[in-house]
Amino acid sequence: MPLRRFLQVDVFSPRAGCGNPLAVVLDAEGLDEAAMQAIARWTKLPETTFVFPASDDGASYRLRMFAPQKEVPFAGHPSVGTAHAALAAGIAQVRDGMLVQDGIAGRLPLRVDTIDGMQRIAIRVPRASVAEIVDAGDARLVPAIAGWPLGALSPALMDGGRKWWVVELADEATLRGLAPDWDAIATLAESTGAMGVFAYARVPGNADYQLAVRAFVGNGRRFEDAASGAANAVLAAWLDSRGALPGRDGRYVASQGREVGFDALLELHIDTDGEVWSGGQVQTVVTGHLDW
């Protein structure tokens, strides 16, 4: 088997070690689904992506993404991290400031910018919709958020391909001090076909970020996500639908991951067409070859 170029990158990270890790296998032609799943299981990272040549001029490259247990149709941090890796390896070229990712979720554009000398990559995520708006006394929700001091907006179930319950907390200190009831969150997630609870709080007066967020995944594995581009995009769609976006001009920054040892910053933008872009900086941590 040939050696394949391999990168491990840190996504939504202003410096190495702050964001969400991702393994990227370049030159993936010849790997079948079983091999890709085995590699993803071996890396033990949240996702591993595999890059293939574009099938035509309409895309920059094709990719498939796998969690350790199964293939994932779409996720934000693997999309942004793969774009960074493809550019670093010379596999893809920016055209008019854009790349186009071709995957199970279809062809999605990525915007590549340089701001203050630092590259930023953002993906336009699939459109999310409001599945349900409930009050805090909803019987399904109560066990999962018992004792949480809530914010102004009602809890809601959002569908962006993956479903998330979005719940506003009263303030940042409350959010960061939460001790989730994992059994209750798992019951809520599994009974409603959701990933879990995406909790958020506004942070007025902070120059670095306008929201603090925490993602409690309860469907399948139970864990707190270090930095989720897709979940943040679903939240952005919810806030936009309620006229409740923080920041200015449809742009804001979310802080995620401190409670699990990370410190990611995710940059959200809702454009004039109502499309949500989720992105940030990416750091290359490991460069080498995979001998599988």
H and E order? EEHEEEHEEEEHEEHHEEEHEEEE
In DSSP terms, counting alpha (H) and pi (I) runs of 4 or more, how many helices?
6
- How confident is the prediction overall: mean pLDDT? 96
**Strands, count:** 18
Name the shape in a single word: globular
Rg calc: 18 Å
Q: Strand portion, in percent?
A: 35-45%
Summing up helix and strand content along with how strands pair, one would put the structural category as: alpha+beta
Largest sheet: 18 strands, mixed
Catalogue the unreliable spans.
none
Share of helix, binned: 10-25%
- Spatial separation of the terminal alpha carbons: 7 Å
Any overview of this molecule?
This protein is of the alpha+beta class and 292 residues long. 20% of the residues lie in helices and 38% in strands. It has an 18-stranded mixed β-sheet that branches. Strand 6 (98-103) and strand 7 (106-115) form a beta hairpin.
Describe the structure using short key phrases.
38% strand; 18-stranded mixed beta sheet; single chain; 292 residues; 20% helix; 6 helices
Compile the SSE list and pairings:
Layout: E1 4-11, E2 20-25, H1 33-43, E3 48-52, E4 61-66, E5 71-72, H2 76-88, E6 98-103, E7 106-115, E8 118-124, E9 129-133, H3 142-145, E10 156-159, E11 163-168, H4 172-176, H5 182-192, E12 194-202, E13 211-217, E14 223-225, H6 229-241, E15 251-256, E16 264-270, E17 276-280, E18 282-290
Parallel strand pairs: 2-3, 4-6, 11-12, 13-15
Antiparallel strand pairs: 1-2, 1-18, 3-4, 4-5, 6-7, 7-8, 8-17, 9-10, 10-11, 12-13, 13-14, 15-16, 16-17
